[in-house]
């Protein structure tokens, strides 16, 4: 991002030379967003400078303040979108082109917008778990699963969001009981990522695990992990009075946004059918645009009914959900 930094040092007269650039801070791996960047630049001629910021994005934006070179942030979880908003480093974006994103998949104040969804599903052993044996998230606390569940840390954003959704459906008392029940059914202490849990099913350490849908696509493309993927099937559990929990990747415009007009063009592009198709094919995720079909692989996993809880409600309950997870010492 050196050109942007130099422009700020040289003064306002230097800015027009860089007016057709967009600077992005991204939680997403570079290879996942590069196809989108390439397509956008080919269409508009606008250069995108993407910085991969795995940790400390909020702190970085706060420290940079009004001088931040970042125009947009791309994140991988509704919890992180909520954190960035709560930090006061975003601005409201009212734009008709973004109305294609359903209201439940955007911030109430239009400060962040979902780009793709992924379901938080159960990976089930094809050998040791019968069809229909697991149907709901509530069922994961049933003693029949004792010693049969593997999971990554429950303080991970994905599981915190799932817990927040459970909290929205059932309240605090039932959520604590559920967390204690699931913890009691673990085959081993939480560790690793979602793919590591599938490996544990393949090796016989456990029978089911929680995971995001798109990891199946990633495993099938990896020669070492393909056997893990083929040892499980995807099950779309639901809440007893709801649907399947979904999370999102999303975008937001920073409060500083030195290249606001170009950044808005990138936001409009990312919400377009073209970009949604690229997302669907590249990342094995579900498009937010109803007019864009899933990739052939994603479609093969079957249909499901997404839970209708607004993501903004899940984001708001995240701190309380994390407190409950820590209260029961889930990872201990």
From TrEMBL:
UniProt KW Ubl conjugation keyword: no
Pfam families per record: SBP_bac_6
Binding annotation for Fe cation: 214-215
GO MF entries: metal ion binding
Residues in the signal sequence: 1-19
Record's keyword annotation contains Amino-acid biosynthesis: no
Regions that span the bilayer: none
Keywords of the record: Iron, Metal-binding, Signal
CC terms in the record's Gene Ontology section: outer membrane-bounded periplasmic space
Family under the similarity heading: Belongs to the bacterial solute-binding protein 1 family.
Protein name: Fe(3+) ABC transporter substrate-binding protein
Protein's organism: Paracoccus gahaiensis
